[in-house]
Design a protein that fits this description.
Blueprint lengths: L3 E3 L2 H5 L16 E5 L6 H13 L4 E4 L3 H10 L4 E2 L10 E4 L10 H11 L4 E4 L14 E3 L3 H11 L8 H12 L2 E4 L4 E4 L5 E4 L11 H14 L6 H20 L12 H16 L1
Parallel strand pairs: 1-10, 2-3, 2-5, 3-4, 5-6, 6-7, 7-8
Antiparallel strand pairs: 8-9, 9-10
Length: 277
Amino acid sequence: MVEVREWTRSDTARFLRVPTSDDDKYARGVVALRTGSPAYPGAAVLGVEAAWRAGAGFVRYVGASRVADAVLARRPETVAGPDAGGTRVDVWVIGSGTDPGERSDTETLALREILSGSVTVIIDAGALDLAPGTRAPFLVTPHAREFSRLRERLRVPSSGDDRAEAASQVAAKIGGTVLLKGARTLIADPSGAVIAVEAGTGWLATAGTGDVLAGALGAVTAANPGASLAEAAAAGAWLHGHAARIAAGVLEGAPGHPIVAMDVADALPSAIADVLA
């Protein structure tokens, strides 16, 4: 039986701070995203939006010109272009809104170069197949079906209904941190330690919220260099869930209402302000 640590609001507060007069945009963290595709440009827009809204000081976007145009239309502060990730980056976010079956050899090579570097990488969705063998510090963010495929690829036997045990085993086998999404999100590091985050709402079960989570994880991780990747991920997941609760109006026992993914991104600043208060 794996021991699971419950993550709290006060735990999250340790990963958030008010910028001081000594901070500049670089001090607040630089997030680069190589996400989205012509088929799913919205994933890139949502991830970039979330990275900005979660407090990143500088956001870069690398992707197809059509997708970059959509990103810039929503967030003109973003530095976008084929070479946008060629300079300072604190954290990469890759894979959201992409299909490995449609990925070109050139794109695969570019992603493998990121994964073989020294910068922390958040690996989502369509890049999860590239995670085994990664040399950079990394976090994979599968939902249940993606996790099942990843476990099969790694030849990790099923642990039945014990999600914590399964996450712990996959983290140990893959040599990186695993964030298994769900109503009870589990974060496991390679040592076998597991953190549980229960801060969200059922209204989060809607398309695109995983893309928002990836961007928020990038921002929180970039703002906390040297911190435990598992703990930074737990803080990002808690913040994402709290933003969803604010957006859906479920605080103080209210039943709430439907939301879309951009509502969650838009509520991230309010969630941060609430924690800091």
